[in-house]
Amino acid sequence: MPSYVYPLRKALDPPRAGRAGSVVRGGTGGYRFLLDEVELDVQELTEHAAQA
Question: What single string gives the DSSP state of each residue in 1-52?
Fold first, then answer.
């Protein structure tokens, strides 16, 4: 699973965010998005997903 999360973090996080500043958080039971801290453009997400 980490191999899928890394590209998401790289595409969505600000530079040098690190895990603590990431919008993708891991914990017991899996990963979750902190969407209240990020503006999400669905078209841009689709393009990034296609490139990953």
Answer: -HHHHHHHHHHHSPTT-TTTT-SEEEETTEEEE-GGGS---HHHHHHHHHH-
